[in-house]
Structures are given as C-alpha cells and as structure tokens.
Design brief:
The protein is α/β, with parallel strands linked by helices. The chain has two domains: about 350 residues, Alpha-Beta Barrel (TIM Barrel); about 60 residues, no CATH class. The chain is built from 15 helices and 13 strands. Helix 3 links the parallel strand 3 and strand 4. Helix 5 runs parallel beside helix 6 and helix 13 crosses helix 14. The longest helix is centred in the middle third of the chain and has 20 residues.
Length: about 450
C-alpha cells in the first residue's frame, strides 16, 4: 500500500448463525451457534486471518423477541470477547455495552480489564438502550427519555475517561530494593459529583494499554450524532442508499469539526449485508433462499417494536399506516424508524415487502451481486465520501464471511485499498488513531 493513501477499514459484525433472521434454518447452519464457543472462535480466527480491523458484537440486556421464531439469547459480549482474545492475537474486539444500565466504575473496570488481557484490542460501542423491555429488567416501569439517556451517557463517559486516566503511566515503580510499589501521588482520586453519578476513584485497574478502549457510537438521531461528534472515534451506522450515507458522512464530519475535533479521527462505518454469488442469478437465488425461510409473524413483531405499537395495526399487503408515516415521536430508536419510513415511501413498499427488506439487516444496506459488484460498491462508497469502511454483516455465518474473505477481499487488495498484513498490535493502531493523553499527567 502506498504511503499516505487512505485505508479502507473492515469490521466483521458477528451475530450467531448470521444476520438474516432465518439464517439458523439453513441446512448448513448451526441453530445453536449462539452459545457455542467453538463457533465464535472459528469466526474470530477467520476474520483475523483475513486481517479485519475488528470483530463487533451487538448486545442488549433483554430477550430478543419471544424466542418463538429466532434464537432470543446471546452471550454477554465482554465475557465472550475475553475468551476470543485468548484465541486470537491481533484483531480488535468491540463490544456493545449500555451506558443506561451500568455504572461508570464497574464498566470502566471491565473494559480496562479486557484491554489489558487482549494486549490493547478492546473497543466499546456505547449505546443508551432504547427498549422498554430492557428497562423492565432493571426495576423501571419504562425506559428513561431519549434526551435523559444521552445526558446520562455524556456524564458516564466523562467519568469513565477520568477513571481510565486515574493511574498515570509512572504510577507503578515496583522497586524491590526499597519496597515501594507505587507512587500514591500518581494515583488520582476523582471526587466526581454530578447529576447522575457520584464516584470517588481511582480505578483499581491500571490505565489500559490503549489509554481508553476505542470509543464507538451507533446512534443516528440528532442527540446521537451530537454525542458522536463529541466523543466517538468510530461510528457504526445504517443507510440503504449511497446518497443518504454520503449525507450522514458529511454531517458527522462537520459536527466533529464544530466540536473542535479532527474529522479524520472519526471513522464512519456503515453496515453492508452482502449476498454473493458467482453470477448475479446465483446471488439472487441465494437471497431468495433466505427470504423464503422467513416467518412473516416474526417480522411484524419486530416492525411493531420499532414503531412502539402492536402488530395488529399493520396489514401485510398495504402501505404503512398513516399515523406511522406522520412520524410520531418515539422514545426508542427514532433514527431506525425514520430509515424504515424513508425506505417504504421511496420504494412504495407494502408492509410485507418492508419486513422482507428488513429480514437480513434490520435496515442496513443489503446488496445482491457478484464479488466484483460487491467490491465495486464498497469502493464507490469509500471513494465517493460515504464511508471510511464497512461493517461486514454476513447473512449466514460462517459461510457468508468465508465467501467475502475468499472472493471480495482479493479484489480490494488488488486495488491497494486493504492491508495484506497487520501493521500494529492494537485496535487504535489498526484504525490509525493515537493513544489519548492522560488528563492528570503533568
């Protein structure tokens, strides 16, 4: 790769048997992949052999649906990534963890620990948990309001950063001769008292190898984009068209600049769900195979959950109801509901067609084509100002990821856009990002 050339970033977004809701039903799939550590190790090692920047795990502290039509559970991601850190050596390890249903001290400690045991490969996808069912698992009658969740997340991250900084790099002296292990003056008490948290500090874990775990954000609401502009180093986002992805990209870079940060220090990564065949017809046949295995009732339930309503309000062969097209204010995922409405209106879709389109990627960009066409699309978004890279969301795992690695990556490498080998050992090095300065040093 030529010196100074912009580099494409690729993450392997892993999800049990695959991202398509019917992936577990395929003949070659493992329907019990969710709790099979061997499955996850195989995926992690495949992605690392291909030199992906990182693995990414989504998560939420509640059952997914009712469990009737799709595996509803998942391993806790920091626990799983700790195990995968011992089966890999270079690939980054990004976990989704809620700021709404955790406390800064405990989570800062867990994330710092993962960064230590992985040798500096941890990342935190910061979410504020939009689901009412999640709130019910923590003794709440309903989720906190959208603005309140983001205000709490802002303070949460301020405290977490201070806790990670609470050990200066020179704090440990480990002088056997004098018996002096650490310099107490370099272990900093926070004494934080804010609106949401009161935290004494310091942390009882040494500063992570990366300074902070890589900070990732995935919300695309106005509050989410402002939060990302202030804090995020990578942004996971969902767009169904190049034009909307390019608009988001320009907007987030401008907000980052306005927040006094370098826009090049924020990596924007849309999701792509690729259905890959050696010919277009083979790719379309693969997509049809998935679609025919869907259970419409599951799709209706998921659609109703997004719009905070009941499945009975939808008619499969009619457009979205007028009250939904009017875009009522939601306390959950406003950006995802807007994406679905935009898709439905732009393509004049019925509810049946909408749930079909959401079956593979829940609103992420689905692409059906040959390896060359997939690569050309990735390059067009990357070079056209719509992405710094992609989350690869294989509809079935491991098969879809293996096909991408075998047939698409060589094309990207042939264009000089993706690494042949890892050049660093930490996730920040993969992304070309510096270790943040310690706020207590000097």
């Amino acid at each position: 790769m030529s010196a100074g050339r912009r580099r494409l970033h690729l993450n392997a977004f892993l999800m049990e048997a695959g991202h398509h809701e019917a992936a577990w039903r395929l003949p070659h799939s493992n329907p019990r992949a969710d709790f099979d550590l061997r499955h996850w190790i195989e995926l992690a090692q495949l992605a690392e052999s291909a030199k992906f920047d990182s693995l990414f795990l989504a998560d939420g502290p509640a059952l997914i649906g009712t469990g009737e039509f799709r595996p509803p559970g998942q391993l806790e991601p920091l626990t799983l990534l700790t195990a995968l850190s011992q089966a890999t050596s270079r690939i980054g390890l990004i976990a989704t963890v809620s700021s709404t249903y955790n406390e800064p001290y405990n989570l800062a400690r867990r994330l710092a620990s993962v960064d230590h045991v992985s040798g500096g490969r941890a990342g935190w996808n910061i979410v504020t948990s939009a689901g009412a069912d999640e709130a019910a698992n923590f003794g709440l009658d309903d989720r906190p309001g959208h603005a309140q969740r983001y205000a709490r997340a802002d303070e949460f991250l301020k405290v977490a950063k201070a806790l990670w900084d609470s050990w200066e790099s020179e704090a440990v002296v480990a002088d056997r001769t004098t018996g002096r292990y650490a310099d107490p003056e370099r272990l900093h008490r926070l004494g934080h008292q804010g609106r949401y948290f009161k935290v004494a500090g310091p942390l009882n874990v040494e500063r992570p190898p990366q300074g902070y775990p890589l900070l990732v954000q995935a919300g695309s609401s106005e509050d989410g984009k402002d939060f990302a502009a202030r804090h995020a180093e990578a942004i996971f986002t969902a767009h169904t068209t190049y034009e909307r992805a390019a608009g988001f990209y320009a907007d987030i870079k401008a907000r980052t600049r306005s927040a006094g940060r370098d826009p090049d220090g924020v990596i924007v990564l849309p999701g792509i769900v690729p259905y890959i065949g050696s010919t277009e017809e083979e790719a379309r046949a693969l997509a049809r195979q998935f679609d025919e295995l869907r259970v419409p009732e599951y799709g209706l339930r998921q659609l109703a959950a997004v719009f905070e309503t009941e499945p009975s309000v939808f008619e499969l062969d009619q457009p979205l109801p007028e009250f939904i097209l009017a875009r009522p204010k939601l306390e959950g995922s406003q950006s995802r509901s807007d994406l679905i409405i935009d898709l439905a209106v732009r393509e004049q879709l019925t509810v049946r067609q909408i749930i079909s389109r959401l079956g593979g990627g829940r609103g992420h960009f689905e692409f059906v084509g040959t390896p060359e066409q997939v690569a050309d699309t990735i390059i067009a978004w990357f070079e056209g100002g719509a992405a710094d890279g992609f989350n690869i969301m294989a509809p079935a795992l491991p098969s879809g990821l293996a096909v991408f690695v075998e047939h698409v990556l060589p094309i990207l490498r042939g264009k000089g856009l993706f690494r042949e080998e890892y050049e660093g050992t930490t996730l920040r090095e993969h992304y070309g990002l510096p270790v943040p300065a310690n706020q207590f040093h000097g």
